[in-house]
Design brief:
By secondary structure, the protein is mostly helical. It has one domain. The chain is about 85% helix and about 0% strand. The protein has 5 helices and no strands. The radius of gyration is 19 Å and the shape is elongated. About 10% of the residues are buried.
Length: about 120
């Protein structure tokens, strides 16, 4: 039979695993975005749009900066999430993780909106 201390550590580590279950997929998305910034031909997000566009350079220059913003924001969110899961208890992280996701998505959407508004002017 497990002692209460060992049981608590086991439950704590299982809780952390559950809190981090989506992080590998998110980090894979971040890696794909970072690769996009280095390899111009491999644009995962706008491949079809680029194929149909008449001016390839205009499309690439228009979407270069937002992709860097997206990659940086989502990478920072995932690194912060991994760090906080191991620092704070699960009861705190249950409330912090949705707030962190909302703030990250809000910053990415507003940053992209401002960038696209600047490009149109």
């Amino acid at each position: 039979m497990l002692s209460s201390n060992k049981f608590k550590r086991t439950c704590d580590s299982l809780t952390r695993i559950l809190l981090l279950k989506d992080t590998p997929a998110s980090l894979g998305f971040c890696i794909a975005l970072w690769i996009r910034t280095w390899i111009d031909e491999w644009n995962l997000l706008w491949f079809t749009y680029r194929a149909q566009a008449s001016n390839q350079r205009q499309v690439e220059s228009r979407w270069c900066d937002p992709v860097v913003l997206w990659a940086f924001s989502f990478t920072a969110e995932n690194v912060l999430k991994i760090t906080l899961v191991f620092v704070y208890p699960a009861s705190t992280m249950v409330y912090l993780m949705p707030i962190l996701a909302f703030v990250t998505v809000s910053l990415v959407v507003s940053g992209t909106y401002c960038y696209m508004k600047k490009i149109k002017d």
